[in-house]
Amino acid sequence: MARPKHIPGSVVKFPVKTRSGKQPLARYLAARLGVVEGWALDLIEAGAVILDGEHVQSDTIINLSAGGHEITISFPETWPNHMAATEMRLDVLYEDAHFVVLDKPPGIVVHPSRGHLDNHTLQNGLRYRYRHLLALKSTTVGPVHRLDKDTSGICLFSLTHAAYVDLAGQFAGGKVKKEYLAVVDGVPPWDEFLCDRAIAPDTTRRGLVKALPSGETAPGEKNARTALRVVACGEGAALVSVRPFTGRPHQIRAHLASLGYPIIGDRDYHPAGVEQSFPRQALHAAVLTVFHPDTEKPVHFDSPIPRDMAELSRRRRIALPPGMADDENRRRKTQS
Predict the structure, then answer these.
(1) What is the pLDDT of residues 114-140, one digit of tens each?
(2) Catalytic residue (choose from 52, 59, 103, 148)
(3) CATH number of the domain that 44 lies in?
(4) Residues contacting 65, CB < 8 A, separation 6+
(5) Do 210 and 332 reside in the same domain of the chain?
């Protein structure tokens, strides 16, 4: 089903596809429009959303299995305010007519969300870079995957609706190959390890998750698999290559912490009371391979370990492999 275009000042009407279950209307709208849930809540609270002829509330639940629902949205001329095109420096690894690949620095969020509505996200920056495309109906400038605010590395954005659907489907279908680098506290006794602990919401800490020990269950748990490989060891620390086979929120951070090797600088998953001298989690998205949405050929991108993580490795006496910290020589895009 085609995605409704959220063009300021327009009115769109579309049917709700029948499927089983119930869902918060804001979450359903976010998925249909390809936006974050906060935007959908903004629209609902502004009175811009009508369901079956009636205005709705922010806590409205839609019964998807009932069938026959119809939604009408009247987009305000200036909605959403936190989607302003904002000029900023972007480190572009690759771009074409379909998508763009950024080398994300730590300390910036990928897209607007609650708590990050200051128009200073990567999506705001890309809307400025491609501002000449925003009026086109085929344009969708949006992230097809997520990195945490303090995680650095490769981040991919679509430029067209067709590319968004294709690339997002690749991530959801497990067709994308990803590799991260992490500097962890402790030296693992293994060279390689496959962690398949399920991930569940941490009911004691809002917005965080926990990895469940073998045999333990919890409400809302989802399977998660992460392949780990020790690249180099140092003084009470190690550089670990991480390949997640599933894409659960905070999966890498929770898995490593559950194994007793939390990422240095991770304020959420490093055990309380441990002294940390690194200002963010030492986690970097280093490698990404996707199938090009136009040619269908695999395209490979990589990003060198950032300077702050390279310096942390040196302080912890971790000998980086030759060339790993050579920023400009290692930055490249190859296609096979």
Answers:
(1) 666 678 899 999 999 999 998 888 888
(2) 148
(3) 3.10.290.10
(4) 18, 19, 20, 21, 22
(5) yes
